[in-house]
Amino acid sequence: MEIQWALGADVAMAFDHVVPGGADLATARDAMERTLQWLERGARRHRELSDGRTVGQSDGERLTVRPSDSPTVRQTMWPILQGGAHSELRIEGLRRILDQGEWTGLAVGGLSVGEPKAVMYEMLERLAPRLPPAVPRYLMGVGFPEDLVAAVARGVDLFDCVAPTRNGRNGAAYTADGPVNIRNAAHRDDARPLDPTCDCETCTTFSRGYLRHLFVAEELLGLRLLSLHNVRYLMRLTAEMRAAVRAGDYERWAADWRRRYTQGETT
Ligand SMILES: [Zn+2]
User: Fold this and answer.
1) From the CA of 5, how far away is ligand 1's center (Å)?
2) Is there a single domain that holds both residue 103 and residue 206?
3) Full-model pTM
4) What is the 3-state secondary structure (H, E, C) of 222-261?
5) Given CB 3.0 to 4.6 Å as the disulfide criterion, which of 15, 50, 207, 219 pairs with 38?
6) What is the whole-number distance in angstroms between the Cα of residue 95 and the centre of ligand 1?
7) The total number of structural domains that make up the chain
């Protein structure tokens, strides 16, 4: 908590113990109990830091903290809900997180860690009506386009994930017409952009053929260009989702998006 405070993060995250997707009930409960205990200790320390109290010794150095000078730089702290793929455990964990205090946001962790996608969707559906309606919901570590679209339908507001850059470095790009593997020989002489609907620097500057050449030649620029595109793709996707939610038209929008994304080319 001290490090997050010193870094000046806007949102400090609680600590959590993540278990693999197939973890049994006892293992998942053990991790959840630990996560709840850490939350209590972390929140206590965070209150001390927010109040400007001097913090104890750490590595021989005394860290003195002051309250934020203005409300705009004040740090908030969010809990993380664990519980594996056991919905009853997650519902109990959520109740106990809410019993610990009022939060400005709430994260759901430990999903998309090897369990079937249907299990993740079911967890989100069970939790959705129980989450405080006015508090942002952050689904941690989820970043594939189809998962974002499915999770927003189930009430999620925020995401973070390594997928867009990790996939980009592997030559996998998200496009409006589905995933593209730029290493595929089919792109060798392709003068079209990676995604004709995209306004990113990669798509407005380079052809698929050139991007493929970069990967085949093991030129590092290729990794960067696909990563940039994938991040931009997700930003445009979330902007579209926001617009559809505001227009009250999300279901239809998501069906159209899914049809194009899953029936498009997959080369
Ligand atoms: Zn692009």
Assistant:
1) 35
2) no
3) 0.88
4) HHHHHHHHHHHHHHHHHHHHHHHHHCCCHHHHHHHHHHHH
5) 15
6) 42
7) 2
Query: Domain boundary residue among 159, 189, 215?
Result: 159
Output the CA 53–ligand 1 centroid distance in Å.
48
CB neighbour list of residue 53: distance below 8 Å, 6 or more residues apart: 65
pLDDT confidence of residue 74: 78
Per-chain mean pLDDT for the chain: 92
| Alpha-carbon distances of 236 from 80, 145, 198, 242, rounded to whole Å | 27, 11, 8, 10
Distance from Cα 66 to the centre of ligand 1, integer Å = 43
Residues 131 and 168 in one domain: no
Q: Do 17 and 105 fall into the same domain?
A: yes
pLDDT tens-place string over residues 135-183: 999 999 998 999 999 999 999 999 999 999 999 999 999 999 999 999 9
Q: Rounded to the nearest whole angstrom, what is the distance from the C-alpha of residue 236 to the centroid of ligand 1?
A: 10
Report how far ligand 1's centroid is from the alpha carbon of 233 (Å).
Answer: 6
Q: What is the distance in A from the centroid of ligand 1 to the CA of 183?
A: 16
- C-alpha atoms less than 13 angstroms from C-alpha of 172 in its C-beta half-sphere: 11
Domain boundary among 113, 134, 159: 159
Same structural domain, 106 and 209 = no
Do 176 and 161 meet the contact criterion of CB atoms below 8 Å apart?
no
pLDDT at 69 over 70: no
Residue 264 within a domain: no
Burial track 20-39 (b if 16+ CB lie within 10 A, e otherwise): ebebeeeebbebbeebbebb
Q: Is residue 111 located within the same domain as residue 223? A: no
Domain residues for the domain of 75 are: 2-159
Instruction: Report the separation in Å between the CA atom of 230 and the middle of ligand 1, taken as the mean of its atom positions.
Output: 7
